[in-house]
Write a structure and sequence with these properties.
Elements: H1 8-22, H2 27-46, H3 51-55, H4 59-70, H5 76-101, E1 104-108, H6 109-126, H7 131-136, H8 141-160, E2 172-177, H9 178-197
Antiparallel strand pairs: 1-2
Length: about 210
């Protein structure tokens, strides 16, 4: 059964939620702002205004202004945790192929370039100023295509820059036993696990009734 067009109020609220999640706001604050925004838009629609007339042509900018007007700012430590999570994930993915096939892992300059490339790409994709803005405005196809293009370039770049590729110059910085590389990867998993547990945007389970 074909679904009808999405409610414009719901679509606008969902787009704002995407932006707020990328901004790292606590889930409780996101839910509260979403409820207040929904009520505000529904009142405007009931008064004869369109959703677009209320929020304008840039949903992300409206979401940012709404957050700054009624919300709390993201603590600095959250940005540091996110940065550590991105770098740890990049290091893990970069080391995985080498650990899989090499008893002694040669850490090359290309590995550092891969980590920097991936970390930069992921940061762009989820930055409130860039990728989150594109996602919030993805109803306009060009923004959605831009986000997908950056994701594709990030992934393809990781493959192209791999030390296994014949065109990548070999520049070994150091060699470490496989077990040491595995310990580094375990540390990366621990960092990511802690970051996920401390992620303020995660939906919380509702409190059980007594």
């Amino acid at each position: 059964m074909a679904q009808g067009p999405k409610n414009p109020v719901t679509e606008a609220v969902d787009s704002c939620i995407v932006y707020w999640v990328a901004a790292g706001l606590p889930r409780a604050q996101i839910d509260q702002m979403a409820a207040e925004l929904r009520a505000h838009l529904e009142q405007a629609v009931a008064a004869g205004k369109s959703v677009e007339a209320v929020i304008g042509g840039d949903v992300a900018r409206f979401a940012e202004e709404w957050w700054r007007a009624v919300g709390r700012h993201q603590p600095r430590w959250q940005a540091l945790v996110l940065a550590a999570q991105i770098v740890a994930a990049a290091v893990f993915i970069t080391l995985l192929p080498a650990v899989w096939v090499q008893p002694v892992v040669a850490v090359e300059a290309a590995h550092l370039v891969q980590v920097l490339w991936m970390a930069t790409g992921v940061w762009i994709l989820f930055s409130p100023r860039l990728g989150a803005r594109w996602l919030a405005n993805s109803a306009r196809e060009r923004y959605g295509r831009l986000w997908v293009a950056v994701a594709a370039v990030t992934f393809v770049g990781m493959l192209v820059l791999s030390p296994a590729m014949p065109w990548v110059p070999e520049w070994v910085l150091l060699e470490i036993p496989r077990w040491q590389a595995v310990l580094v990867m375990v540390g990366c998993l621990v960092i990511n696990g802690l970051a996920i547990l401390r992620d303020p945007t995660r939906p919380r389970a509702p409190a059980s009734l007594p």
